[in-house]
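Task: sequence design from structure.
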């Protein structure tokens, strides 16, 4: 994409911005972004490329013009293989404001995994940045879709507009069947989410946001959408590394997000310091008291927030900076909670038993997937303490959450049982201090006298599934615990006692 001056001549201005007073019902995310970047200050910075606010909007308009040439059905989500970059931001903004909402997919998944998702959509076109053209070709062949590789795009002064009920973007999340399900993010609800999250994270036009979460993830595009609505300067990394963190520190970023495992990696490397960081948002797992204390030693003034939510709606609750300061002062039990309801959120525990445990339901204007009465059914079991703090006790389903990524056991089991040396298999999640949960497999070998080599099973699984879905430990068993209907009873899957070894 061209990083030079936009197409306007001397004295030329963009078209009138879409109306929509901040905070008012009926505001759209597109209006927030239009208003936020109506300036000539830096807005996007990736490597040597810097765009001003006007240039970002100009390139978004150019992206909208290009999307129009693809013969897309208005309003239909457009599946895309893109990574965090200036181009990706322009595509999302341009698509949202032209009736071509982007639906980014995970570029680290296998072609077979991506094709399964694409085939379940109405989109007849798969977009891909040039670096993902080969992967896109494989997915297009498997899904029967037409591949369109993103060319160099140029600016335009086209007006980007939208209505509150229009789709702004679509993210996918793993459902109870194991197949990632689309979560439509409408303009009005995304605007509401941007207001809530932006306020909690203290994002404003003087902020500089830089993250490393995958673009297709709620922690990726979801957080970038909030930063865009606030008018922050934005950068990003293709993936988390210690060297990447050093780059964010060198650039002077003020806001970021991560999972606690990343924070522990930085602390272990002695690289957690970040003099300009003001807000560190995390999720996916609790932070340990010692980790929190060392984080404050490395970054004394940082504001720590743990936001609990999911692709279907976030935040549900928040453990605030004040909560974290209380925790490091002695109330460490707060770190086992996910805080109290976020502003404007109503929380209830549905079907609670005598112990007060039930499924967490929440209702607010910034949730995307809700029932007829406006409730989001989280699928998480939890309880609310007398002081209002919410404590999670596991998934209503069998979903494993490993470092913020969802792993559905059935998907992994299906792959494992295609190996000739495996007669049966069950996968479950076990607690992990760094990642929240990790994946463990129980395998019934086809030949009990000659079980398959675990390394072979790892290779077999990794060839078909993303790395975070591959089990980290393997146990060979004679049979699996099942109920009267023949279903595996996962709660009865237990690793051997200490002293015994895993494969």
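Answer:
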């Amino acid at each position: 994409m061209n990083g030079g001056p936009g197409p306007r001549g001397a004295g030329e201005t963009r078209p009138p911005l879409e109306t929509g007073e901040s905070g008012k019902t009926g505001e759209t995310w597109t209006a927030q972004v239009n208003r936020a970047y109506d300036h000539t200050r830096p807005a996007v910075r990736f490597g040597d490329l810097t765009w001003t606010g006007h240039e970002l909007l100009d390139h978004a308009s150019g992206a909208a013009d290009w999307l129009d040439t693809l013969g897309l059905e208005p309003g239909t989500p457009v599946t895309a293989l893109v990574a965090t970059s200036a181009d990706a931001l322009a595509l999302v903004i341009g698509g949202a404001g032209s009736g071509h909402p982007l639906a980014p997919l995970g570029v680290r998944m296998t072609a077979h995994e991506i094709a399964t998702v694409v085939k379940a959509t109405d989109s007849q076109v798969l977009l891909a940045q040039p670096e993902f053209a080969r992967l896109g070709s494989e997915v297009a062949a498997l899904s029967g879709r037409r591949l369109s590789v993103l060319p160099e795009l140029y600016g335009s002064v086209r007006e980007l507009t939208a209505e509150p009920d229009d789709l702004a973007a679509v993210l996918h999340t793993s459902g109870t069947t194991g197949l990632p399900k689309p979560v439509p993010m409408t303009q009005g609800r995304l605007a509401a989410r941007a207001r809530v999250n932006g306020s909690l994270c203290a994002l404003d036009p003087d902020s500089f946001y830089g993250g490393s979460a995958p673009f297709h993830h709620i922690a990726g595009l979801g957080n970038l959408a909030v930063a865009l609505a606030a008018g922050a300067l934005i950068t990003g990394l293709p993936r988390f590394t210690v060297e990447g963190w050093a780059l964010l520190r060198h650039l002077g970023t003020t806001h970021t997000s991560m999972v606690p495992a990343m924070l522990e990696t930085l602390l272990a490397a002695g690289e957690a310091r970040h003099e300009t960081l003001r807000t560190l948002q995390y999720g996916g797992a609790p932070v340990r008291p010692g980790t929190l204390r060392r984080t404050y030693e490395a970054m004394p003034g940082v504001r720590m927030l743990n936001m609990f939510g999911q692709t279907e709606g976030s935040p549900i609750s928040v453990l605030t900076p004040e909560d974290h300061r209380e925790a490091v002062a002695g109330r460490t039990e707060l770190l086992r909670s996910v805080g109290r309801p976020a502003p404007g959120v109503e929380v209830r525990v549905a079907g609670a038993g005598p112990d007060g445990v039930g499924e967490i339901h929440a209702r607010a204007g910034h949730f995307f997937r809700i029932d007829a009465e406006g409730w989001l059914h989280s699928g998480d079991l939890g309880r609310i303490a007398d002081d209002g703090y919410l404590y999670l006790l596991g998934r209503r389903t069998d979903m494993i959450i490993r470092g913020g990524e969802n792993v559905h056991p059935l998907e992994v089991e299906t792959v494992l049982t295609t190996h000739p040396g495996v007669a049966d298999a069950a996968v479950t999640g076990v607690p992990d201090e760094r990642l929240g949960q990790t994946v463990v497999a129980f395998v019934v070998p086809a030949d009990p006298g000659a079980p398959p080599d675990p390394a072979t099973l790892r290779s077999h699984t990794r060839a078909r599934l993303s790395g975070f879905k591959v089990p980290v430990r393997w146990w060979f068993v004679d049979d699996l615990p099942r109920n009267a209907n023949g279903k595996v009873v996962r709660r009865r899957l237990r690793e051997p006692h200490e002293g015994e070894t895993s494969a």
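The CA atoms of residues 30 and 97 lie 6 Å apart.
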